[in-house]
Structure formats: structure tokens, C-alpha cells
Amino acid sequence: MNDFLINSRFTNTAYDIKVYIPDGKVPSDGFPIHYVLDGLSYFGFVKDAVRLQQLNSMKTGTSPAIVIGICHQSEEMRERRFIDYTASAEELQMPAHAKGKIPAIYGGAEKFYSFIEQELIPAIENKYPVNTECRTLLGHSLGGYFALWCSFTQSKKFKHIVAISPSIWWNGEELIEKAAQFITNGASEKNIRIFMAVGEHEGFMVEDAKKMNTMLRAADLQVECYVAPEENHASVVPTVISRALRFCSNSLTVTPI
After folding, report:
1. By three-state DSSP, how is residue 92 classified?
2. Running DSSP on this structure, what letter comes out for residue 162?
């Protein structure tokens, strides 16, 4: 482990960065890399899934990869998630289930993306052997919203987007409009692959994910949408990590270790 703290000049916030580097020979073009949002919650799941399953890649379909956990400070995590993971808006359109639950400050996604693109990625890739053509961004809930928002609106730093239980409902389902614009601008020409997953018991979020999946597949994007049987918003992440990793790995040439 080579964990470190980084203070972002874009967000004026400190992030703990957790790092997992696979053992063994480095591929000639470097390791694929998975950037994991909400690292305090999900870095361990992704790291252990990669660490264990890479031992038999031919059977598991999971390649050796670097895993990076992007962690908020625990005491401010709830508030910072709303700031860092949501796009700016002059006025929010919130569904009934969210009213009264949203912090007063939100809309810092552009600054947070600048932190990832201009501060975090260079810090990691100047130190470790990374395949820059095989970056993954993985997020859950608002983190899933942010991952999709990045794929539709920002420069294409990430080949793979993993959006688990994405908050497509945020601000009047604005991601649907952003996806439509992305498609209009030639989405099928972008080298990007999107994995979405949602728990069977997540209600309207299942229909939101299916709607997004239909839009993106109609534009000839490489998309997988998986509804996890019997899972809910809290339980879905550990149950779908392996499937997501296989999705990210199947564009690679996997050799046994």
C-alpha cells in the first residue's frame, strides 16, 4: 500500500487516496486502473475482488489492475458527496422522496472532475505503470450519477464507466437530457463502455436505469445494464462488483498468472 493525502486546489478539500498495486510482472502497456469513488465504503470491495480473482484470470475474467480509492474525510463525507458528485444548477427540481434531505450546498462536479483529471490522475500515473487506455471510474448512487455525468460531459479520460444504482433522478432527471446531447454529438464515435447495475428492489431507480440503457444502446454504445435479483440500494454494490470487473476486463487480452 502507498496511501497518501492530497489537498485539491480546485475543491479546497483534502482527500485520502488508497492505492492497491498488483503483484507480479507489469504488462508491457501498464496495468489497467480502477478509480473508485466513495473509497471509504467501496475501495475494499474492489481491491479484494481484483486481488483474489486475478489469480485465475482465465476463469474469473478479471485482469490484474491498479485500484485507487478516492476517500472523503469521514466527518464531512455526506455533505462533500452532494458537493463533489453533482453538477451545478440554478434551481433544483427534486422528487418528493428527496425533499428536505438535500444539503444547502451542491453542484461542484466540475471542480471535482478537475481535481481528478489535473491533480489525482497525474499524481498516480507519474508514479505507477498505468495503461492510460484502460481507466475505469466506478461510483454508486450519487457517485454513479457523477460517473455517468463525466462520460456525457467531460473529456474522455475513462474508457470504462461503472455506475451502480446511479441517481438518475437528480435534478429532474437531467442526466437523460445530457445523454441525449451526448448522443447527438456523436456518442457512437467515442471509445467508451458503460456498465450500469441496480438492485431489483430499488423501485423507480430500476426503471431509470433501464431507460438510460435503452437510450445508450440505441446509439450503438457498448452498454450493459444488470438488475441484481433480490438486492436493494444498500446491498447491491458487493453483489455486482465481479460482474463489473469482468465487463471492464473483457476488452483486454487476459493471460493466466
Report:
1. coil
2. E
Strand ranges (E), 31-76: 31-36, 66-71
pTM for the predicted model, two decimal places: 0.94
Neighbours of 13 (CB within 10 A): 19
3-state secondary structure of 245: helix
- Alpha-carbon distance of 115 to 15, in angstroms, equals 10
The string over 169-188, giving b where at least 16 C-beta atoms fall within 10 Å of a residue's C-beta and e elsewhere, is bbbebbbeebbeebbeeebe
The Cα 161–Cα 165 span in angstroms is 13
CA distances from 210 to 13, 195, 207 (A): 35, 12, 5
Class of domain 4-74+113-249: alpha beta
The SS3 call for residue 69 is: strand
Mean pLDDT across the chain: 92
Please list, residue by residue across 203-217, b when 16 or more beta carbons sit within 10 angstroms of its beta carbon and e when fewer do: eebbebbeebbebbe
Q: What letter would DSSP give residue 117?
A: I
Helix (H) or strand (E) holding 19: strand 14-20
Label residue 112 by pLDDT band (50, 70, 90): very high
